[in-house]
Design a protein that fits this description.
With 217 residues, this protein is an alpha/beta fold. Helix content is 58%, strand content 13%.
Length: 217
């Protein structure tokens, strides 16, 4: 049996959730609260819970603060955030606060039920709509980064690539100059050009960028 405490400041929404969850044979709603402070008082009066299903925006104490306090005082209780807030910053803050799951309020009933079961088993849960949105953003980010890397790679001359490899091998400017039969000043110019083209800050970040971008292996 999964014992659930509902925390939602809108009574109509809370009643609807309670009705939905009571229809599941392995669920039992053991308490309801309209804000974080009420929820903590319930838990302090020995109301038993395995999962806390809470909104974020509530008076007196919001769901994120409640999640942090529950993690500190009742570490065995798992929290699933149910909110209208779909920006990823709230998702990140929720998990940083100790939540095990995050769902949007337009979630399908059966998906929410599945999410509650997952969270009760200490598994992470993100609703499908939010997961899809995040996946699209990550994909676009890496596509832009790949385009940037390709542009940088195409902009580097063969000599700059050669200097880059020797820098990564730990050679000094003078040692590189000796190997390439050129002047130390010329090598210094190549090093600065590499840092400028890759938009890195120094030699260490240049080498990190080069390996991450596949310019060095």
């Amino acid at each position: 049996m999964i014992r659930i405490v509902l925390v939602e400041d809108h009574s109509v929404v809370r009643s609807g959730l309670s009705f939905l969850l009571k229809g599941e044979k392995d669920f039992r709603v053991t308490g309801e609260a309209s804000n974080g402070m009420e929820a903590l008082r319930l838990l302090e009066t020995s109301v038993e819970a395995d999962v806390l299903l809470t909104d974020i925006n509530m008076p007196f104490m919001n769901g994120l603060e409640l999640t942090r306090k529950v993690r500190e005082k009742y570490p065995t209780i798992k929290t699933l955030i149910l909110s209208m807030l779909e920006h990823e910053k709230y998702l990140i803050e929720a998990f940083d606060s100790g939540a095990c799951g995050y769902a949007l309020k337009n979630i399908d009933a059966q998906e929410l039920v599945c999410g509650l079961r997952m969270v009760s088993q200490d598994r992470r849960f993100i609703c499908a709509e939010l997961a899809s949105t995040l996946f699209d953003k990550v994909t676009r980010f890496y596509e832009k980064e790949s385009e940037s890397i390709r542009a940088v790679s195409a902009d580097l001359s063969p000599r700059e690539m050669e200097v880059l490899g020797l820098i990564a091998d730990g050679f000094t400017n003078q040692e590189i100059a000796d190997k390439l039969f050129t002047s130390k000043r010329t090598v210094e110019g190549h090093r600065l050009s590499l840092i400028d083209k890759t938009e890195t800050r120094n030699t260490a970040s240049l080498i990190q960028y080069a390996f991450r971008a596949g310019l060095l292996k």
